[in-house]
């Protein structure tokens, strides 16, 4: 084994151990010896994505992709860098290119999915009600939403396959809610993935929360939420539309909280048939109330489809594609993905 190859393996191991500063130094050393090393360039960009500095790696990834045009992973990473840099048209182009390349690449049967994180429903549900009671005491209009609301209404408890808790708040009170959360030990997780809505928080107990801001569109007067970035045209965002939010007080063992007066209307807007359990439903991609196939929506859709292909999760890929309602039926790439998902299951 060459010295450079050994150093590269060490760098990848450091990255996998989340020792990003040490890994960065190791990858930079590898590039000082061989500036054409595709893996080193890609991993340095991955570290920059975590740190919020991915824009600085766009040029090096473009050069790497020119030298290695069949590297789907490099194209996907470049798409993520463009997305973080708010260059969404270029991000969409790269995500689609990554999918095109991957479709013509033999499946990676050696891929090992990450183990599922154990989900303690009791701790999650307790923190959900505690936080809602805290917000109520501070007169912050808040309520359980998304998967948390679905579990409470349909199952009477947090869904066992959920991964976080979801709380909706008045968009005008977001900063007040964030300040209160931080005073209770919550900290913002991964810069909320470069979004201003929702904001993602982690608790010392290991619970994560999406704090979703609900506002009113000044033009349509519709209640809106979704995935929003700063410094882009607002119509580029992934915007979801909801019925008017009306709240009523509810008594819980943790104190009084706000609760939606007609939660079924919100669930119907988001899920459609919310009464039928569907553990494979992808809320980000398949929500029924997405306003349009906007640029940020496309970024999340194509990136998620890429990861499903990479993991060879063909059943979930087909299920997801069947639920997407805003694709052009003549989109050649999507038709190829659908055919691939079906053929890999026969």
From TrEMBL:
TPR repeat copies, ranges: 72-105
UniProt entry tagged with the keyword Transport: no
Keyword entries, A-Z: TPR repeat
Highest taxon of source: Bacteria
InterPro entries per the UniProt record, alphabetical: TPR-like_helical_dom_sf, TPR_rpt
Keyword Transcription: no
Protein name according to UniProt: LicD family protein
